[in-house]
Amino acid sequence: MIKHAQQTAIADDAPLAPAQVEVAPEEHIAPAPRVSVQAFCESVETAAAVQSAGEDRRLVKAHVKIQMGGATAAVEAYRTSPTPNVIILEAEARGDDILHKLDQLAEVCDAGTRVIVVGRVNDVTLYRELTKRGVSDYLMSPIGTLDIVRSVCGLFTAPEAKAVGRIIAVVGAKGGVGASTVAHNIAWAIGRDLSLDTVVADLDLAFGTAGLDYNQDPPQGIADAVFSPDRIDTAFVDRLLSKCTDHLSLLAAPATLERVYDFGAESFDSILDTLRSSIPCVILDVPHIWSGWAKRLLVSADDILVVAGPDLANLRNAKNLVDLLRAARPNDHKPYYCLNQVGVPKRPEITPADFAKALEDQPLAVIPFEPQLFGTAANNGQMIAEVSANHKTTDMFRQLAQVLTGRAEAKRKSNSLLAPLLGMMKRK
């Protein structure tokens, strides 16, 4: 019998602040492991939804195969072949016919296979009968891509488990724009202000600065994990972590040139899977390079922040990055971006409004050029909040942390009748 598995913005008074950005809470769906999924569809629409789901980043490790013919085709297929980890079965028939087909499938189905049924009948009695037969989930058609992704991924997440392993990738649109500084300060704010256990992974193995910024010099770091993929487990990763605060740890880069760091596209998968299974938040400090592994990390992240400076090259690169990632992640929130080092004296700059027009989105933050503040923090191995706890830039990092972890409330422009009067009073 089929085994039953599961039932189923930034401060308004900040200088150079962008227009208010509405941020809706994003649903966090943990990715599925390496499993085989076979769908037997009766409609072209459902087959298209499954095909699109198979291309989603959260099912990138799953092997998805689609056939037409519904339950009848499934029964015939498994008479002579083993069943996969997950079967998606579309049944457009009425309740009794669905149950009859499931009984036939149970006779040829291996123990441990999980079944998701897609049907058109909205009936509590039918749902109860399906669960009695060990069906893992029942979806009402028409279904969308995320319905399939959510259902398949949910089969491998314990119902009582908290959503862990949110991966946030921070990358610069151009070298020297301060993306690492932004990433490290956001991670600090997540750990200190949100009390969320966080790991910063410095992926610039040759020239990474996370160890300097956090005033840490660990003997081991992320290179030990990447070069020893067979040893990676939770205990091994724990030994590599350098504790910065009660809620913040560091996977430091070696920052040496004794060896080259040429990796395959999947070199970081094992360590990220291990981190995701035990750490609520992982910040990836992605260097400004374009390689197979860098692209894979960005595409597979839960959220992305592109850091750009206010010049033409940054505008072009940021647009290229955002456009590519939007196309590669059609079922995810579009990548965020922020502007850094804005307001350098006598330097011509492209305005935030021009960036917003080109990228079709407002910047999540506009961080002003503060050489004294950032220089002091960098040279002392401190975060901005440690140098000046009440500085507006500190508050900007705090709010960036809230947005990227999905803990920020949507900020909406006031529609109150008193809004014009309050605005006049503020100006006075």
What do these coordinates show?
- This protein is α/β, with parallel strands linked by helices.
- It has two domains: 36-154, Response regulator (Rossmann fold, 3-Layer(aba) Sandwich), CATH 3.40.50; 166-404, 3-Layer(aba) Sandwich (Rossmann fold).
- Helix content is 38%, strand content 16%.
- It is built from 17 helices and 13 strands.
- It has helices spanning 44-54, 70-77, 95-108, 124-132, 145-154, 179-193, 210-213, 222-226, 234-240, 269-278, 292-300, 312-328, 352-359, 371-380, 384-387, 392-404, 419-427, and strands at 36-41, 63-68, 86-91, 114-119, 137-140, 166-172, 198-202, 242-243, 248-251, 281-286, 303-308, 336-342, 366-368.
- It has an eight-stranded mixed beta sheet with strand order 8-9-7-10-6-11-12-13, with helices on both faces.
- Strand 1, helix 1 (44-54) and strand 2 (63-68) form a beta-alpha-beta unit.
- Helix 1 (44-54) crosses helix 5 (145-154), helix 2 runs parallel beside helix 3 (95-108) and helix 6 packs across helix 16.
- The relative contact order is 0.14.
- Mean pLDDT is 85; it is low at 1-25 and 409-428.
